[in-house]
Amino acid sequence: MAFLELYKDRLKHNYQYLGRLFEERDIQWGVVTKLLCGNRNYIKEVIDLGAEEIHDSRISNLKVVKSINKGIQTVYIKPPAKRSIPSVVKYADVSFNTSYTTIKMLSEEAQKQGKKHKIIIMIEMGDLREGVLGENVIDFYERVFELPSIDVIGIGTNLNCLHGVMPSQDKLIQLSLYKQLIEAKFDRKIPWVSGGTSVTIPLLLKKMRPMGINHFRVGEILFFGLNLFTMKTVKGMKDDVFKLYAEIIELYEKPKVPTGELAENPSGEVMQIREEDYGKMSYRAIIDIGLLDISPEFLIPDDDKIEITGASSDMLVIDLGKTRRNYTVGDLVSFKLRYMGALSILNSNYIDKKII
User: Fold this and answer.
1) pLDDT score at 41
2) What pLDDT is stored for residue 264 in this prediction?
3) 152-181: b (≥16 Cβ within 10 Å) or e
4) 8-229 — its CATH code?
5) What CATH number is given for 242-355 in this structure?
6) Which residue of 111, 281, 295, 306 sits 20 to 30 Å from the alpha carbon of 348, by its own alpha carbon?
């Protein structure tokens, strides 16, 4: 049976690396836990490292955080849906917002619950996901500042999340300038300029972060140690906090080329045959994971001689080449994961999750 392992010592190593990085630069930060898909044991590991602020895009996951430690500041990191507003106010201390109508409803609900709800207003900086357009920012803030039970604690942006627009000094300086304009116009302090995510860490390491950017929210780099500019591991960080293990359930020497008329498989793919593969044989193993669990493109075999041949819903075929390399049925094959692959695995009820 396939299973996922989280290695506590490697997670702690990355957490401490980031903690030092931010502390030296007087930056506040929170951990984005949406990757963990509400897994209570894994979330507790993050909290036990000393995290004081947890960000997530699912209210149910923030509910888990509050059930472990009510004192942790929880941040809901997408514009709330109308029907979720009572839960957002109950379980999220802070939420990201872009709609005046939504913020007005948050204000009304916070009054009902006897709370002050904190918000970060997201600004559109070119990636075209969520965000208020720059030319509307001043008017938007003017209306929001009039609402009771709402505390505007930050201005923020998301980059690289939809169209792949990368952060730059210019974009982050622009975000900082919006903060200065708002403070000057309304004589109100905006504590956070939340322009930092995992993809912004390389700018921080190169000392290219504008000083006005004083808040980061990070997930991917904590769990994978990945520089999203170079797609290489950040020096001093670990890239194997997670490992996926799958069992070999069949192993035979078979032809490399299928026989018969080829049509689309259930995934809508038609196999492209390489002429050099005709007449060749190789050892092919089936392991007990499939497309229901993960897309093969997000798997990184620890054995670099393994080639992933294809997958169906519940099984994945790997090519071991001309030699089986001492593999037998029942052996485990291990993989490192890319972010979206880990997200799929952690969202699967069919994969056991362990802590090492």
Assistant:
1) 98
2) 72
3) bbbbbbbbbeeeebebeeebbebbbebbee
4) 3.20.20.10
5) 2.40.37
6) 306
Q: What is the pLDDT at residue 280?
A: 82
pTM for the whole structure: 0.94
Instruction: Return the pLDDT at 20.
Output: 98
**Domain parsing of the chain, residue ranges:** 8-229, 242-355
Task: Give, for 321, the enclosing helix (H) or strand (E).
Answer: strand 316-321
Q: CA–CA separation, 156 vs 122, rounded Å?
A: 5
What are the structure tokens assigned to 27, written together?
A: 């930056």
Mean pLDDT by groups of 10 residues along the chain of 356 residues: 96 98 97 98 98 98 98 97 98 98 98 98 95 96 97 96 92 96 96 95 94 96 97 97 98 85 70 73 95 96 93 95 88 97 96 98
User: Could you give the CA distance from residue 165 to residue 78 in angstroms, rounded to a whole number?
Assistant: 18
Sign of CA dihedral 30, 34, 38, 39: negative
Look at residue 208 in the predicted model and tell me its pLDDT: 94
- In this structure, are residues 223 and 14 in contact, taking their beta carbons and an 8 Å threshold? yes
Which residues contact residue 290 at a Cβ distance below 8 angstroms, ignoring those fewer than 6 apart? 311, 312, 313, 314, 315, 316
Summarize the chain as % helix, strand, coil (round to 5).
35, 25, 40
